[in-house]
């Protein structure tokens, strides 16, 4: 399935004419601006990419789920997936930059006061401010209840002290959603945490140096250090004690589908690159692609990709249509990563020793796919969620909880005629 500026027919049930237009825009952007920068980004893993986020900001893409009244596109979750997926086929790192800010944007849309939304959302939609969400800590990864960053009330200000790690876009963001402990030991985690909006210029806020990582070169996921950072009480996001809800709802409704879309982009690139290689590698007077054993493996890859594609779009289509679908978002993230990781291994093997040459592009996809396992819940946490769904003891459905809120993005209009 070669890259095309028209979506595959399998997506017709989920895409409107507006989605198709966005698809074409994202393809054009990736071809004109991203493709020529990929090798430079790959060659400089210690360097942050700043120009491409600026160009995406100028297109209003960080406002894809922001309501129109705040200057956003109000285009919804399918549209968000289209952007991340299509950019991700060309560069997962650039797709990661886009998705990392769209998670805290979702948190602000759902949990922010009118004043907070009026102050910040137009800036994000207009591209002058990017956001990060800072939950993970050195000793508290998937275990949100183990967060040690503390926020204490001093008069009418909160004073926050702690350290966050692996924070996506930490070096680009001007506003951070920081989750901290606000209750004494013994209070249940579901009531002990609070989310805060912390501006970049606050005294005591620091960042670790951008460090090279295995993949996603150009994307920063680094340290945020809070040394007695003082912020006004008006910067509490949601209610005091609702920090876990803010973090989990943003992770389920935005983080998981965003990472699903990144995996999908990498998966598509893997299939395309492998099909091209096999079709051009001579063997016995023909090409490797003509051999049944090879076709069997390539067919597996294509089948996995198709499954991941329809699973990803089907889940966000339901989200746009206000259907309770948390378990489908979780399942799409889990299988989207797993299937792409299996295809990455097949692709490496099908390229033989060529896969190991320093200049083989496939290595980028193989490294990048490792980065979609842990964010927005590792595989273990997705499976725990799904097991609870099977047992009928599943957690609250955030998709259902927010379905009737005014902050929700526009529902998907009628699908385009086939
Ligand atoms: C590309 C990328 C972007 C990221 N962006 C952000 C971001 O923007 N903001 C942010 O806050 N964080 C971010 N993260 C961090 C990410 O959320 C964490 O990696 C994730 O929560 C897991 O935490 P951990 O890596 O510390 O692993 P740990 O929690 O230490 O887990 C290690 C292993 O043990 C397993 N495990 C742990 N506890 C259990 C359990 N109870 N039962 C079964 N298995 C368990 C895990 O599944 C995992 O396999 C990002 C990470 C990456 C790679």
UniProtKB/TrEMBL annotation:
<dbReference type="InterPro" id="IPR009100">
    <property type="entry name" value="AcylCoA_DH/oxidase_NM_dom_sf"/>
</dbReference>
<protein>
    <submittedName>
        <fullName>Acyl-CoA dehydrogenase</fullName>
    </submittedName>
</protein>
<dbReference type="InterPro" id="IPR037069">
    <property type="entry name" value="AcylCoA_DH/ox_N_sf"/>
</dbReference>
<dbReference type="Pfam" id="PF00441">
    <property type="entry name" value="Acyl-CoA_dh_1"/>
</dbReference>
<dbReference type="Pfam" id="PF02771">
    <property type="entry name" value="Acyl-CoA_dh_N"/>
</dbReference>
<dbReference type="InterPro" id="IPR009075">
    <property type="entry name" value="AcylCo_DH/oxidase_C"/>
</dbReference>
<keyword id="KW-0274">FAD</keyword>
<comment type="similarity">
    <text>Belongs to the acyl-CoA dehydrogenase family.</text>
</comment>
<dbReference type="GO" id="GO:0005886">
    <property type="term" value="C:plasma membrane"/>
</dbReference>
<dbReference type="Pfam" id="PF02770">
    <property type="entry name" value="Acyl-CoA_dh_M"/>
</dbReference>
<feature type="domain" description="Acyl-CoA dehydrogenase/oxidase N-terminal">
    <location>
        <begin position="16"/>
        <end position="127"/>
    </location>
</feature>
<dbReference type="InterPro" id="IPR046373">
    <property type="entry name" value="Acyl-CoA_Oxase/DH_mid-dom_sf"/>
</dbReference>
<dbReference type="InterPro" id="IPR036250">
    <property type="entry name" value="AcylCo_DH-like_C"/>
</dbReference>
<dbReference type="GO" id="GO:0050660">
    <property type="term" value="F:flavin adenine dinucleotide binding"/>
</dbReference>
<dbReference type="InterPro" id="IPR006091">
    <property type="entry name" value="Acyl-CoA_Oxase/DH_mid-dom"/>
</dbReference>
<dbReference type="GO" id="GO:0003995">
    <property type="term" value="F:acyl-CoA dehydrogenase activity"/>
</dbReference>
<feature type="domain" description="Acyl-CoA dehydrogenase/oxidase C-terminal">
    <location>
        <begin position="241"/>
        <end position="390"/>
    </location>
</feature>
<dbReference type="InterPro" id="IPR013786">
    <property type="entry name" value="AcylCoA_DH/ox_N"/>
</dbReference>
<feature type="domain" description="Acyl-CoA oxidase/dehydrogenase middle">
    <location>
        <begin position="133"/>
        <end position="229"/>
    </location>
</feature>
<keyword id="KW-0560">Oxidoreductase</keyword>
<keyword id="KW-0285">Flavoprotein</keyword>
